[in-house]
Protein: Carboxypeptidase-like regulatory domain-containing protein
Organism: Prolixibacter bellariivorans
Amino acid sequence: MNDHQRRLTILLFLVFLSTVSHAQIRVVDGDDHSAISFAQLIAPDGRLVGTSNTEGKIDTVSVNCFVKNSDSLVVQHLSYENSAMTWKQMKLAGTILLAPREIALHEITVTNKKEKMVLVLKGFFRSYQLKDSIPEYFADGIVEYYIWNDGKRFKCQKDAYRLFRNQELLDAIQYHAVTVSEGSLTLPYIEPKTIVKQLNKNYSIDGNHGRTLILKEDSVAGSIRTDEARKQVQINIDWIAPAKVRERSLFGYQVRITHHDVTETYLAKSQSMASKANLESWRRYYQYFFKQKKETRFKNIQTISEFYVLESYYIPKSVMQEERPSSGWRIPLSHSYTTEYWEHLDERIPPLNPNIKRLLGATLMMYD
């Protein structure tokens, strides 16, 4: 090999190293630089183009398939302020620092300790759905969840809501006689138990790696982050891990679930103190592909659901049974509100991602 070939080989090797080093970017806490799991990148047209994994990493190669370097992407996470920059700036930086949101503590009220009680979580919900990467639905509103102490019974009551849809997309859908639901949104379904209490014998918790990890089959499936200064415990779980996909058959359909990521944030000083009574926020990202067995192409549904607690209090079981009927999980194809609640959100609720907000009233129209 002559000198010219040797220099060319070294140059190509350096280019390769540079490409590999930027094949991933990390999303981290702006204060302590810890990894942020399940942060999401929203493109200008409302598409979800990337999600950080349990180590806070986003694969740049896959994002490159959907956006241009000049596109302004908004990074969102329920515990941090939104951050916007171009895709080129993100790749050059290699690391995205998010500023933590300051959370004001709320009080839990107990009305009668002698009687069996039901926990009430009143808060704001927000849900966004895409079909084949095209924005399809958006909903938000005020809801009350009722959770019995046994963690088994769970009801809800909608106080106010709005529902938006992409009518052009809906008009193009060809419905079958029997179909996997690809219809309107429902209220976020937050499990009555914390993530940790949902873990079965296949999971374990390991605190020997500088951070607390949730393991399944010796693979990282989630993490638990405790911030004593902020009095905050955040639990992340990838319910699919360590598998990449979970397959099911339903009414002649093939279903492939590729994402079921949940984040819960609690106002607590330690993991042992985290309970639904001090839940601060909840978020789920769910993605699945489905088709009839005779079809060749899978359809893709992505849903981002959020819930932010505004009040936590207990009511007697007798009051719950007599005065608080359930309104069901479905959001009617309409709207119902007496005040413009979305214009006066509590400071604990992060603003709507601007790349989604600009779709409301344009691509997504509110039901009458």
Confidence is low (pLDDT under 50) at residues 8-21, 176-181. Helices lie at 3-21, 60-64, 87-93, 167-171, 195-198, 317-323, 354-357. The CA atoms of residues 119 and 216 lie 31 Å apart.
